[in-house]
Amino acid sequence: MRDRLRVGLIGVGHRGRAHLATLAGLEELFDLVAICDPSARNAETAARHCQATVYADPLELFGSARLDVAIIATPPESHHGLAGLAARHGVHLLIETPLAPTRAMMDYIENAAARAGVKVEVGENSWRQPVHRLNRAALDAGLIGRPLRATCFYEMGGHPDMFYHPSNLLRYYGGAAAAGTEVRAFEIRSQVDLLLDDSGRPVNPEVWSQAFLAFPNGVYGINTQVSTWSGPLRRSHPRSITVEGTGGLLVGGRRAVNALHRLEHQREVIYPLKVDVRERDGRHVPTRYSYETDPRVEWANPCADWPIPYGEATFGVEDDVARADELSSLYKAVTSGMPVVYGIADARQDQELSIAINESARLGGQPVTLPLGSETPWERAQHDAFRSKWGCDPLGEPGTVAGTNFGARGSS
Ligand SMILES: NC(=O)c1ccc[n+]([C@@H]2O[C@H](COP(=O)([O-])OP(=O)(O)OC[C@H]3O[C@@H](n4cnc5c(N)ncnc54)[C@H](O)[C@@H]3O)[C@@H](O)[C@H]2O)c1
Q1: Which pLDDT band holds residue 309 (cuts at 50, 70, 90)?
Q2: Where in the sequence is the domain holding 285, given as residue range(s)?
Q3: Which of 220, 235, 297, 359 has its CA at 20 to 30 Å from residue 401's CA atom?
């Protein structure tokens, strides 16, 4: 048996419960000793699925639970305060996406972690889903030639101004850094008939946003995002990405026909995504994802021996694989001193692109080139909203920020 790390899960709403399910399959690495949530309803629901001690207050949690690691799955504007408090107690972190909404909040986390010498992994699951790992391997093997552009179709539930997931996928396939990227974006708002937020409450307008990213390496990224794609009005729309190269096309994502299209002897040949599965305890475990090219290109599921649940039965985008990968990256970093695989530096780039998209849209599509300069109006609005909503300085004492109840989806 390896050394198990004592983990506390902070925030047991929608995403926290997904981590709870994945953690149950990673008992070899982690001992879930505490959950923390001021919502009695969410804490009680989570407590039914584990043996952990329940805390309502993060100050109490860090004061008594002797954690090695904490998972922060609370609303985005709370991440930095909780991270600052955790770092003070020498606790390593997995922080959900976005790392934090603004650059000042991300600096807050980075500085606190550096001072305390704690590791921070970020739960960016997009690039970690199996079909994207396989497609990246196909791209690296030259199977679609030189990449020209990646086009993403995305939606972010109740957050039409958040673009970190598609930015992550575009950067991943573009093989590009955010610095030097020129962003142009605009958005159109329309009143529509049926639009519910991610708590099922009616909202309007629908926000349709279009972003064009010119990466410094000559690859282009395009993101089309519509706030209704997750709701009943347009639910059947794929959340997917296509990558076009000089000699073919890759398609990957949820509700997409995942495949490699290639030009061979001047003819299009289509290789559908193939998933090898193994039966375990009456359940199907995906072991390998491949395209049957010659030679075959494949990505083996590194989590196949762990009893994680594979929540989504849509082969190719199993999110449990992504979460297990995030957790094992943090485990390796903490126990061996290695760097985490993604972490603050990458998460910052994806969120900075998201901020730039908001800034260019505000300017009616004018180009915005990274790095960004001083605080943008969008960031200032985040800080102002924080002050007026939560009654404290967003960049103040971590204990005060972390002790705020940031609410839960559907609670107001
Ligand atoms: N990576 C992904 O694909 C993905 C998907 C969904 C959500 N997320 C992220 O996960 C985080 C949580 O989102 P969610 O959808 O689970 O929201 P949620 O509202 O369902 O859950 C948030 C929970 O945090 C609790 N909370 C609020 N303030 C707290 C505090 N000070 N201390 C401890 N707990 C507190 C709430 O009571 C609630 O139970 C967000 O950052 C979100 O962006 C990521």
Answers
A1: confident
A2: 130-315
A3: 359
